[in-house]
Amino acid sequence: MSGVIVGFGVITSVVVIGYMLGRIPILGPGAKDVLTRLAFYVASPALMFTILARADLSSLVSTPVLASVASVLVVALAFVVVASVRRWGLGRGTIGALAASYVNAGNLGIPISAYVLGDASLVAPILLMQLLVMAPVGLTVLDLSAGDVRGVVPILRRALGTPVRSPIVIASLAGVLVSASGWTPPAPLMEPFDLVGGMAVPAMLLAFGISLNGSAFPGRGPERGPVLAAVALKSVGQPLVAWAVGAFAFGLDGGALFAVVVLAALPTAQNIFTYAVQYDTGEAMAREAVLLSTFLTIPVLFTLTFLLG
C-alpha cells in the first residue's frame, strides 16, 4: 500500500498548493477559471492524444473490462434515476452521474494498479473506456443541457456536432486513429504533446485547490443530497456492483475479480470538476464528491484487500 499512500500524498500536496494560491491570490481572482480553461482546451486534449495514440485498443475487449463497464452503467443509471425523482436537473444530474462512476484512473489508478494489484497495465482499459465513451457522452449531454437548443432536429444536430466542438473528444478520436493505424509517430513530433499534456493534471489539481478556499465543509452545503448520493454510489455502490457483476454475471474469481472491484473503488476523477466549472453546473457538487470519495478510498481499499485480497 506504500505506493497508494505516496500517490495520495502527491495529489494532496498539489491541492494544498492550490489552496494556498487561493488564500494568497497572487494569480488574481480569475486563476481558477484560467487554469480550468487551460486544462480543458489545451492540456487535457494533448494528454488524451498522447495516451490514446500509444494505447493498445485490443485491451478494451476482455471479460474484466465488460464487468467494469457494467458496474459503471448500473451506478450511473442509479444516480440518474435518483436525480430524476429529486428533480436535480439535466446538467447537475449528468455531473452527479459522472461523479458517481468516473474513476480517477490516471494519477491514482496507476499507482494503485502497480502496488495493490501488481500490474499497472490493468487500469489502461478503464482509462480508455472513460476517454472514448464516458467523456464524449457526458460532454454531449452537458452541451445539450445548456438549454439554448429547441426541437428534435436541432437537438440531434447539436448532439452529433458536439464531438467536433469538444477539444477533448477531438484529441481522443485523433489518438484512437493514430493507434488504430499502427503508425508510431516520431519522438520529436510527440514531445510537444507530452510537454503540454504534462500540465493537465497539475492544472486540474491547482484549480481544485483554489476552489476549496472559502467553500463549505463537504457534505454540509446546499448540495448535500447530490453529494452524498454520488459519494455513496462511488465509494460503496460501485465496488459492490462490480463484485456482484464480476462474480455472478461473468464468473470472475481470484485476482481478476479483486482487480475489477479495486478499480471500481477508485475515487471520482478531478476531470469531473473541470467539466463542472467549464459548463457552469454542479461545481460545488463535483468538488465535494471528489474530495469525499478521495478521503474514503484508503479505508475502502484496506477493507477490500482484507475481504478479497
Commentary on this structure:
The model has no long low-confidence stretch (mean pLDDT 83). The chain has helices at residues 2-23, 31-53, 63-86, 90-101, 109-115, 124-144, 152-161, 167-181, 187-197, 200-212, 224-249, 254-264, 271-278, 283-308. The protein has a single domain (48-201, 216-308), classed as Na+/H+ antiporter like fold (Up-down Bundle), CATH 1.20.1530. Helix 2 crosses helix 13 (271-278) and helix 13 runs antiparallel to helix 14 (283-308). The chain is an all-alpha fold and 309 residues long. Helix content is 74%, strand content 0%.
Shape by Cα distribution: globular
Helix segment tally:
14
Provide the structure class: mainly alpha
Beta-strand share of residues: under 5%
Give the CATH architecture. Up-down Bundle
Mean pLDDT over all positions: 83
Largest sheet: none
Distance between the termini: 12 Å
The tally of structural domains comes to 1
Order of helices and strands: HHHHHHHHHHHHHH
Uncertain spans, ≥5 residues at pLDDT below 50?
none
Within the CATH hierarchy, at the fold level, what is the topology? Answer: Na+/H+ antiporter like fold
Assign a percent range to the helix content: over 70%
CATH level 1 class label:
Mainly Alpha
Radius of gyration: 19 Å
Number of beta-strand segments? 0
